[in-house]
């Protein structure tokens, strides 16, 4: 095919003069269309790493800066958490008498991702890249919740031993840097990793409640739990309930305290799942939920 004819066929393929295309162009036009169809990248309808930043939705950090994860990468996250559980928690915190120390370490580490998210979001705002105050408030509310879990475990004596404090705090320090890097690269990955951490926390507390119900019901609630769940300002507690559920835990004994903590971890799991999608999380106090606050 000569160059002028090729150019003419290309114009026909683009739809500019297809009515005048000679018969010998038919094969070339079909080939051009097939090539364009098979080589053009297909964008994820929600968000994708190849979507230009200026064209992305800014509903949440994942849609603005992230991309979906493959099943194999999700499985790798679960395997990493299972490995940490098996090598650290099941080794150094084995035994019924080590339960509070185990929970202390778990809560020391579990609140770290929210610090990392806040650090990166503050950086984005400082650089003028993205500003959504809702997510600063959400992640602070989550860290505030985990802080009070930690205060409860400290009151129960979970941090009495120097080795337990040393181990938990040094793991948390390294984890902080890891999550910052993960969040900068892909927020979806960071949220998925924390979903697995919170699922592990939920399962750990649920098992402990099942195995120790009678004993826990005979023990008093720590003052830190009463201050947070009963007598405290519930604004920040409500702010991490992104499923529009108005929770008011009943705290009468230590069993009730662990039920409340377990349910908190379940709420964190649901929030992490939502943040991996295109959904914008809801805030009770911003009027985005049809609940009556009293």
- Cα distance, first to last residue? 79 Å
- What is the ordering of alpha helices and beta strands? HHHHHHHHHHHH
Kindly state the percentage of residues in helix: 55-70%
Tally of alpha and pi helices: 12
The biggest sheet, with number of strands, parallel, antiparallel or mixed sense and barrel status, is: none
Describe this structure in words.
The protein is an all-alpha fold. Helix content is 65%, strand content 0%. It has 12 helices and no strands. It has helices at 3-13, 25-39, 61-65, 71-92, 99-110, 112-126, 133-155, 162-185, 187-217, 223-229, 235-239, 254-274. Helix 6 (112-126) runs antiparallel to helix 7. The longest helix has 31 residues, at 187-217. Mean pLDDT is 82; it is low at 3-8, 10-21 and 32-53.
List keywords for this structure.
mainly alpha; disordered N terminus
Question: Helices, strands, pairings?
Answer:
Layout (H helix, E strand, L loop, with lengths): L2 H11 L11 H15 L21 H5 L5 H22 L6 H12 L1 H15 L6 H23 L6 H24 L1 H31 L5 H7 L5 H5 L14 H21 L20
Helix pairs in contact: 1-2, 4-9, 5-7, 5-8, 6-7, 6-8, 7-10, 8-9, 9-12
């Amino acid at each position: 095919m000569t160059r002028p004819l090729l150019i003419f066929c290309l114009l026909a393929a683009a739809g500019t003069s297809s009515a005048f295309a000679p018969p010998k162009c038919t094969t070339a036009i079909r080939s051009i269309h097939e090539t364009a169809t098979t080589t053009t990248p297909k964008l994820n309808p929600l968000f994708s790493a190849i979507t230009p930043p200026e064209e992305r939705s800014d509903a949440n950090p994942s849609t603005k800066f992230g991309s979906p994860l493959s099943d194999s990468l999700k499985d790798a996250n679960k395997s990493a958490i299972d490995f940490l559980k098996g090598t650290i928690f099941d080794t150094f915190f084995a035994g019924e008498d080590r339960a509070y120390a185990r929970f202390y370490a778990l809560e020391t580490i579990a609140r770290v991702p929210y610090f990392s998210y806040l650090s990166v979001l503050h950086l984005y705002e400082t650089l003028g890249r993205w500003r959504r105050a809702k997510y600063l408030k959400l992640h602070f509310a989550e860290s505030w919740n985990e802080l009070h879990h930690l205060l409860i475990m400290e009151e129960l004596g979970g941090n009495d031993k120097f080795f337990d404090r040393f181990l938990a705090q040094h793991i948390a320090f390294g984890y902080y840097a890891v999550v910052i890097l993960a969040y900068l690269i892909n927020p979806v990955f960071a949220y998925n990793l924390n979903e697995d951490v919170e699922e592990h926390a939920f399962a750990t507390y649920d098992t402990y409640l099942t195995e120790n119900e009678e004993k826990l019901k005979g023990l008093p609630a720590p003052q830190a739990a009463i201050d947070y769940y009963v007598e405290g300002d519930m604004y920040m507690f409500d702010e991490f309930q992104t499923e529009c559920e108005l929770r008011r835990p009943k705290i009468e004994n230590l069993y009730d305290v662990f039920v409340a903590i377990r349910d908190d971890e379940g709420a964190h799991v649901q929030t992490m799942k939502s943040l991996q999608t295109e959904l914008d999380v809801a805030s009770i106090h911003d009027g985005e939920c049809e609940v009556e606050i009293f």
